[in-house]
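hiii so um. not sure if this is the right channel but i have a protein structure encoded as C-alpha cells and i wanna go backwards to a sequence. like what aa goes where. can anyone help
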C-alpha cells in the first residue's frame, strides 16, 4: 500500500484539525486526503506544508477514499456515514450517533480492540469515556471492578470551537468589567463551574453522564456499575476525572501502582510528597492518560481513589480514531473490500 486514502468530515473543526496533527505526528502514510466541511467557501486546510482545498460534503464521491473519519456531529454522521459505507469506505465515527447500536463496535483499541470484528463502521467513544476506560481497564483485568463513581471536570474544547471562542471572549469581558453574554452555554463559563455538560435526561442525569455510563458498560462489561456527574470547567484543553473504584479482589497500593504503570497508554503521575499530580496543562498535546492521587478509601478496604486527566482532543478523539484505523488495517487491510 502506498498510503491511506482518507477523508476527514469536519476537517475545519477542533477534532478534524487535531486529526491532521495526529496523522502528521504518527507519520501515517497518506496518498489521498480529502478535507470535507459544511461548505467549501474558498477555504483551505494546511497539512504537511500543503494547502488542501476544503470541499463541500454534499458533493463527495466516496469512491475517492478507503477510510473516512466523521467529526461533524450526529446529524452529519446519520446522513452521510451510510452513503460512505455503501461505497465500501471504512467509517470511523467520532459522533455519538451509532455508538450504542448493537451491531456497531465501540472501540478503544488498548482496551477492546478485538471488538472491531468485520464491521465497516467503528464508533469511537465519548472523550470522557475513552480516558476513563483506559485508566480502569488494567485494574479491571487484574482485580475485577464492581463499582465506579466518577465526577468529571471537562474542558470547553469538548464542546467544539465555538465554546473555545466563548471562554476567550467572556474572559476578556470579565476582565474589562463588561456584561458577560453567554451563547454556547446557558450561563457564563468564564470564572464559573457548570454542574452539567448538556441537557438533563432520564433520572435527572445529563446526556453526557448517560454516555459515560452506557459506553463504559459496553466496553468494560455490565458488571461494572458506574454512576457519573459531568461538570464543565473553564479550562481550554484536558478533561479531568475524580474516580472512585471498588474491586472484587484485594490489592496493595504497591500492586495497584504497578498495574497502572504497566497499563497501555497510562502514565502514572503520582508523587504526593513532591506535589506531583496530573493537570490538564500537562496532559495537553500528549496522547497518554495521566493518572495520579492513587489512594485507598478511608472506609472501604477495596475502595480506590484516582485522578485521571487526558487531552480530550487527542487521546479523547483524534488519537483514538487513528489508532482504530491502524487496528482495522492490521486486521483487514484498509482498501481491501473483501470484508
Ligand atoms: N471536541 C472534542 O473533544 C470531541 C471529543 C470526542 C468527540 N467529539 C465529536 O466530534 C465531532 C466534532 O466535534 P468538534 O469539537 O470538532 O466540533 P467543531 O469544532 O464545532 O467543528 C465542527 C466541524 O463539523 C463541520 N460541520 C458541521 N456541520 C456540518 C455539515 N452539515 N456538513 C459538513 N460539515 C459540517 C464543521 O464545518 P464548517 O467549518 O463548514 O462549519 C466543522 O468542521 C462531534 O460529533 C463531537 O461530538 C468531539
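sure thing!! here u go:
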Amino acid at each position: 500500500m502506498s498510503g491511506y486514502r482518507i477523508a476527514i468530515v469536519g476537517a475545519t473543526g477542533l477534532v478534524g484539525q487535531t486529526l491532521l496533527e495526529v496523522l502528521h505526528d504518527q507519520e501515517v502514510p497518506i496518498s489521498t486526503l480529502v478535507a470535507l466541511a459544511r461548505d467549501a467557501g474558498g477555504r483551505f486546510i494546511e497539512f504537511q506544508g500543503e494547502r488542501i482545498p476544503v470541499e463541500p460534503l454534499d458533493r463527495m464521491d466516496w469512491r475517492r477514499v478507503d477510510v473516512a473519519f466523521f467529526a461533524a456531529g450526529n446529524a452529519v454522521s446519520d446522513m452521510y456515514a451510510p452513503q460512505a459505507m455503501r461505497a465500501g469506505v471504512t467509517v470511523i465515527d467520532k459522533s455519538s450517533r451509532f455508538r450504542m447500536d448493537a451491531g456497531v463496535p465501540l472501540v478503544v483499541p488498548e482496551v477492546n480492540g478485538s471488538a472491531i470484528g468485520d464491521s465497516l463502521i467503528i464508533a469511537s467513544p465519548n472523550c470522557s469515556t475513552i480516558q476513563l476506560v483506559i485508566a480502569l481497564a488494567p485494574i479491571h483485568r487484574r482485580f475485577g471492578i464492581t463499582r465506579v463513581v466518577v465526577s468529571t471536570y471537562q474542558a470547553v474544547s469538548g464542546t467544539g470551537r465555538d465554546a473555545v471562542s466563548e471562554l476567550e471572549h467572556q474572559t476578556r469581558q470579565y476582565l474589562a468589567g463588561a456584561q458577560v453574554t453567554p451563547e454556547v452555554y446557558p450561563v457564563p463559563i468564564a470564572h464559573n463551574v457548570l454542574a452539567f455538560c448538556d441537557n438533563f435526561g432520564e433520572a435527572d442525569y445529563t446526556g453526557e453522564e448517560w454516555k459515560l455510563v452506557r459506553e463504559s458498560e459496553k466496553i468494560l462489561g455490565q458488571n461494572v456499575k458506574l454512576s457519573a456527574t459531568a461538570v464543565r470547567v473553564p479550562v481550554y484543553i484536558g478533561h479531568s476525572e475524580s474516580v472512585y473504584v471498588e474491586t472484587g479482589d484485594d490489592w496493595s497500593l504497591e500492586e495497584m501502582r504497578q498495574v497502572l504503570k504497566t497499563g497501555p497508554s497510562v502514565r502514572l503521575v503520582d508523587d504526593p510528597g513532591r506535589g506531583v499530580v496530573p493537570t490538564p496543562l500537562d496532559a495537553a498535546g500528549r496522547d497518554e492518560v495521566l493518572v495520579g492521587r492513587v489512594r485507598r478509601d478511608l472506609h472501604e478496604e477495596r475502595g480506590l481513589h484516582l485522578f485521571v486527566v487526558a487531552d480530550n482532543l487527542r487521546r479523547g478523539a483524534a488519537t483514538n480514531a487513528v489508532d482504530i484505523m491502524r487496528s482495522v488495517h492490521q486486521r483487514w487491510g484498509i482498501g481491501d473490500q473483501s470484508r
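oh and The longest strand covers residues 145-154.
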